[in-house]
Amino acid sequence: MFENNGYLTSPDNRRLRLQADCENCFGLCCVALPFAASADFAIDKDAGKPCENLQSDFRCGIHNSLRQRGFRGCTVYDCFGAGQKVPNYLRRSRLAASARIG
Ligand code: SF4
User: Fold this and answer.
1) Distances from the Cα of 7 to the Cα of 3, 25, 84, angstroms
2) Can you give the pTM of this predicted structure?
3) Of 30, 38, 71, 75, which has the maximum CB count within 10 A?
């Protein structure tokens, strides 16, 4: 899946690759993951359903007041970079597939 350009052998590189990059996120976790109304989340959300706070630009509409609005779970969650890596991987796969077809 990933090229081995030091990724598998260097602890520093491995750690860097597992960091979330919110500026390049597509809201993957805000859509894919479910959560239940609780002390951590103000509402129920099914897997695959966009959170009602997710905006069309893939930004959280209540980012600056998550805890006050009852979304403490979002402040402690860490995707370890999945939010930007998975969509980029899927996009590259789709481009590769269309290049093979075309
Ligand atoms: S509240 Fe914001 S960070 Fe939490 S799931 Fe919804 S859109 Fe994402």
Assistant:
1) 8, 21, 17
2) 0.76
3) 30
